Predict the 3D structure of the following.
Amino acid sequence: MKRIIIIIIILLTGNALFGVDGKKRKRDVNFWLSFVFGKNITQMNSDSSGPIGFNFNFKYKNHIFLISFLSPLTSFSLFPGSYGGETVQTENLSEKSFIYQYNFLNHPQGLFSLGGGVSIIQHEKEGYGIEDFAKKGYGLSLQAQFMVKGRAVGFGLIGYANINKYKSYAGVLFALSFGILK
C-alpha cells in the first residue's frame, strides 16, 4: 500500500521532483464561447437593430474553427398607410456560419485572426406594399477577430461580412468570451 501511495505522489508531482524547469507549457488546444452584439453598418441610415448571437470557438495552435449564430439583423421602415395611419415594413436576416480563421498574433494575452467560411442565411420580409416571403440560401461569411484574453474571460471586437444573393451586409460586434482561453 505504501508503494502505491509513493507511486501516485511521484506521478502527480513528477515535474517538481525531477527538476523540469518552472516554465508553464503553452496550451495547444483552447475553446471558448463568445456572446456578441453590435451594429450592422450597411444599414446605418435605417432604424435598425443590431445583431446579437454567440460563437463557439475551438483553437488548435494557430487554427481557429468557429460556429457562429447571428440573429436578427433587422431593419424597420415606416410608410404612410392608405387611411392616414402608418404601416411597418420589416426585413430580417439571420445567419448560421461555419468559419475557419488563422491566428496571426500568437500572444498569451491576445489574438488577432482572419478567416472565412460558409453560412446559411434566412431572409424574411414583411409589410405594406411588398409580398411577404421567407427564403433560405447560402453565403460567404468573412470575419476578423481581435481579442484581449485572460485565463478564462476575454473581450474583443469582431468585424463581419456576409456576401449572399439576397442582401449582403457587414458590421462590427463586441464579444464577451468565456472558456479556456490560455
Notes: Helices lie at 2-12, 14-17. Residues 50 and 180 are 28 Å apart (CA to CA). DSSP finds two helices and nine strands in the chain.
